[in-house]
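If your schedule permits, I should be very grateful for your opinion on a structural question. What I wish to show you is a protein chain and, alongside it, a tokenised description of its three-dimensional fold. Would you kindly read the sequence against the tokens and tell me how you understand this chain to fold? Here, with my thanks, is the record as I have it:

===
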Amino acid sequence: MSKYRYAFLAFWLAGSGALADEPRDWQHSTLSGDWGGARSRMSANGLDWEIVYKSSLHFNVSGGLTSGNKYLGNLDVKLAVDGEKAWGWPGATALLSVLNNHGGKINASHVGSAQGVDNIEVATNTTKLYQAWLQQSLLDDRLSVLAGLYDLNSEFYVTSSSTLFLHPAFGIGSELAQTGQNGPSIFPTTSFGVRVKARPAPGFYVQAVALDGVPGDPDNPHGTHVQFNKGDGALIVGELGWAPGEDEARPEPAEKGESVSKLALGLWHYTARFDDLLDTDADGNPERRTNQGMYVLAQRALYQEAGDASQGLTAFLRFGVASADVNQFDQALDTGVVYRGLIPGRDDDQLGFGIAAEHNGAKFRQAEADSGNPAASAEVSYELSYRAQVAPWLAIQPDVQHVVNHGAPSVRSAWIAGVRFEISL
């Protein structure tokens, strides 16, 4: 099997220039400040650094595999480039992102949930190139084309209010996150892809992406691997949506706290085939099946405080299906509500309650029963979380989760208490 590895050229760093009309207040919004004015000078020349450190401390209080606690950490270093400022290239933008994950595995060692309990937990701790893409906007930003290492969940299957929660199912739906030989192109391992996005009318968008079907190297989770092997196939995803509050074609989800109305329908399909969970051919080999699915999502403000539309209560609902022949989950649903600014004087704080339910398909349950490990029909998780923005550069988020029917009958439902710290450096 042939392998091709690609090295990525470092971004050219511009030196000096006049400051933008409204430069970001780095000294106030980040812990490390303006780096002696270097950040402002680079930003004026189209180079914006974002360095965010997230850490979680979780306690599995009862149930699950075993009681105990674990610390998890994630460092994300991003360099966003405005092509016109940096290179004199109108309509061009670029992103370089490097991840470092470290710490324990609260779900793998203590809870045992099929979905996980913290969205920064990874199977293998390592440092890797996470995103590296170039985008060109055309027709007054009504059309954009992007190519490079790309996180599917940065634009597809996104509701801004659900990003509050720590449970992984509130990012990309579990029925899609489970798919592929090495997962789809999402955190923490992405693959090369080409994405096209168009805005044919105000508030409406249509987008499609084709991605290498096997991100990274399944046999070597350490470091960065970009390779195209025979049989990988492609993951193709399309989404049609209405989101009147999102006017820019940007491959990033709305900021935490941005509450916009949204309706979307998505379809996805792998061009490669996968082993059936039960059925075999005449030689006893698994039948090869297609792997595809769809999802719908909705987000709506239920209540807005007088005088400030960003304050109030927002609800979201997402539902997806996946091929039951080859996947554990054939259906997944998550829903929740988030209130921003509930406490007077705490306008950036958020309080949320969410429910995520994943249905185990009939073939998966039969396969588990045949192997002596009967599985429940569904796994359900409940999460209550409060994100306190205690400083412009620091957020502290206490979190409680209850996970039900997440293993064999001998595994009791788990209660997990934790806290997330997020620091903008």
Observations:
- Residues 28-424 form a domain with the Porin fold (CATH 2.40.160.180).
- Confidence is low (pLDDT under 50) at residues 1-21.
- The first helix runs from residue 26 to 29.
